[in-house]
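Summary for the steering committee. One of the milestones for this cycle was to obtain a three-dimensional model of the protein with nicotinamide-adenine-dinucleotide bound, which we needed before selecting residues for the alanine scan. The sequence and ligand used are listed below.
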Amino acid sequence: MAVLITGAAGFIGSNLVRHLLKRWPDRDLVSFDLLTYSGHLANLQEVATHRRHQFVQGDVADRGAVRTVLEDHDIDGIIHLAAESHVDRSIVDPMAFVRSNVVGTVVLLQEAARLWRDRTDVRFHHVSTDEVFGSLGDDGAFHEDHPYAPNSPYSASKAASDHFVRAWNETYGVPVVITNCTNNYGPYQFPEKLIPVVISRAIDGDPVPVYGRGANIRDWLYVEDHCDALALVYERGRPGHTYCIGGENTITNIDLVGMILDELDRARSEPIGTSRSLIRFVEDRPGHDYRYAMDIAKIRDELGWSPATDLTTGIAATVRWYLDNEAWMDIVQNEDSQSFADSWYASR
Ligand SMILES: NC(=O)c1ccc[n+]([C@@H]2O[C@H](COP(=O)([O-])OP(=O)(O)OC[C@H]3O[C@@H](n4cnc5c(N)ncnc54)[C@H](O)[C@@H]3O)[C@@H](O)[C@H]2O)c1
């Protein structure tokens, strides 16, 4: 018996595999990933030869590949992270998001239900985002009963997948849990999301793009804290339930970017403020949600979880990691991601 981690070669997935191999001394893990432009075996290098870990390359939307991996490894638990994950890309190519995020999730659910039949000692954990709830005004926070109102093709595809997961619990009795989490940051994040974009471009002395005037507000969670929350919900979350996860670190994009650039100056012993000259405001992303914030009372009260890493500590660790791992950056950055970023920002 083993737990299948889909999307394991991505940012959160690879951090989760490392976390779970340490946390669960007796469990086998099978990493399943298509290795798209954002998934890299380099992210799993540290555990490549671990005796309780295997990697299988495959597509969650490919029924044959999913059936084979579930049966061959006697999978009795799934933590499903595989997804197209970049909002800007979803605006340019939404069908890729429908295929991997919606069709892929349904294929996985169907094959899990087929294999598990009426077993209750199994678990399907769907990893989702706070973006399914849409945008907040100046007050309030998302919570488990917040109405769904996705605004981007990415968040719409994640919302659809959440609904299918819920339906497989209600209709077919699959023991599911769903987690909706705020923005993650930390080591191994592909350099197309805000924080690694800022760090990598500033390291190279390139302009740092900021949408609009940088007034949008996000809640940031250090990826290791997310992994701890995911493991807890997988272990002890109530079947059929959703748990909201957040960092309780809300900040405007422009303040965050300034903080990262100052940290980079500090780490490179340059006068604080030097790197801020790289900031360039660019035309806002269409449909850009204004504010996200999360009420984490349920996971705190039921499972005793709260974020352990404050933003200052997490950003310092993340900047240090990227400075120490420029070779990783050279491996994962490819022509596809470079040309997407160049044409996207040129159009802003
Ligand atoms: N990054 C965040 O801030 C955040 C926050 C909340 C939830 N999430 C969710 O967590 C999950 C992981 O996000 P991430 O930031 O690590 O993304 P990522 O892009 O770094 O990783 C996604 C992984 O999924 C793989 N993948 C994509 N399509 C696939 C397919 N059809 N079959 C198999 N593998 C496929 C990719 O190769 C990649 O390794 C996603 O489901 C995302 O919606 C992310």
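Key point for the committee: The mean pLDDT is 95.
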